[in-house]
Amino acid sequence: MKALTYHGPGRRTWGEVPDPVVRDPEDAIVRVDAVTICGTDLHILGGDVPEVTDGRILGHEAVGTVVTVGAAVHSFAPGDRVLVSCISACGRCPYCRQGAYGQCRGGGGWILGHLVDGTQAEYVRTPFADNSLHRLPEGVTDETALLLADILPTAFEVGVRNARVGPGDTVVIVGAGPIGLAAVTTARLYSPGRIVAVDLARSRLDAAARAGADEVLMAADDVDAAIRALSPDGLGADVAIEAVGVPETFELCTRVVRPGGRVANVGVHGRPATLHLEELWIRNVTITTGLVDTGTTPLLLDMLAAGRLDVSGLVTHRFGLDEMQDAYDVFADPGTTGALKVALFRT
Question: Per the database record, which ranges form the Alcohol dehydrogenase-like C-terminal domain (predicted)?
Fold first, then answer.
């Protein structure tokens, strides 16, 4: 089969690799029908994730069809149409028993495209299939389901729910890329008073407005003062969600949040950020971090099937699977291409 493989910082190839096979009775082999590229894949290619070794197939998000299952797989059978989650879960370790699947200590967690071969291929081996695949409801397209493999549950769990977004809150989302836009979409489920999106790119701010942001701000402007002015009492945001993964955006979030406010970091950081405890300690600010657990994926799938979750507009570019290299080039240069999420389909 063909796959996208990593060969050190800045080096990737699309070419022939061995077909995956069942190695464990809990495995399933899934034919990839649709796949996407994540900002985390760009972090890997930038050298920010040293655990990824030479020759690893990248990717951790896909929609596909089950081809083969191991003897211990009971919930899925060949022919089933499934969502391949970015998180694998053994279902037995203490973390899994608490629903913290992202911290699985039984061989799961974020492993696809990281510690084991991933989804940017014609076929993928999915460990712990019973706990890590999701059967797709009728009427949900491959493209919309693809957005629930990672960005929607990540934005919802690590951003919106960790930050305890509530009715009437002023919510600032720093970064209007795919994760930031998913945060706008899922924050609206809690009826905040105002959602403010911040970004450097006008095209992404326009996308945030279409997704439901009430205000959009250029990051090059005096964002701190603008956010205070937009809050009802001038004290700043109740919630700030960091959706980029660079020191400047994290530090911006800690500046614009009000006393007693919450900062939820979602972005993947490759460099240290300064934590100004000398200023934050007296303001009762809560800061959360996290890797998605994907415990909300079934809920989000149900909402998507019921038409209660609008993800239109998140996919901006579409490719055939064998156009993987072109898709990476487009996704990696959003300032020029306007790319948000790219989707690649088996042809």
Answer: 178-302
- In the DSSP assignment, the letter for residue 159 is I
Residue 18 sits in the same domain as residue 129: yes
Distance CA 103, CA 295 (A): 12
- Which two structure tokens, joined as six digits, stand for 242? 């960091």
User: Is 160 within 8 Å of 183 (Cβ atoms)?
Assistant: yes
Q: Which residue range forms the structural domain that includes residue 309?
A: 2-150+293-345
**pTM, rounded to two decimals:** 0.95
Residues 141 and 20 in one domain: yes
Number of structural domains found in the chain: 2
Query: CATH number of the domain that 320 lies in?
Result: 3.90.180.10
* Beta strand ranges found along the chain (DSSP E): 2-6, 12-16, 28-36, 62-69, 81-84, 123-126, 133-135, 170-174, 194-199, 215-218, 237-242, 257-265, 286-288, 315-320, 341-345
Phi, psi angle pair for 209, to nearest 5°? -65, -40
The DSSP call for residue 321 is G
CATH number of the domain that 222 lies in?
Answer: 3.40.50.720
Distance CA 203, CA 335 (A): 9
The first and second tokens of residue 128, run together, are 């712990």
- Tens-digit pLDDT profile for residues 302-344: 999 999 999 988 999 999 999 999 999 999 999 899 999 999 9
Judged by DSSP in three states, 203 sits in helix
Both ends of the chain: CA-CA distance in Å? Answer: 14
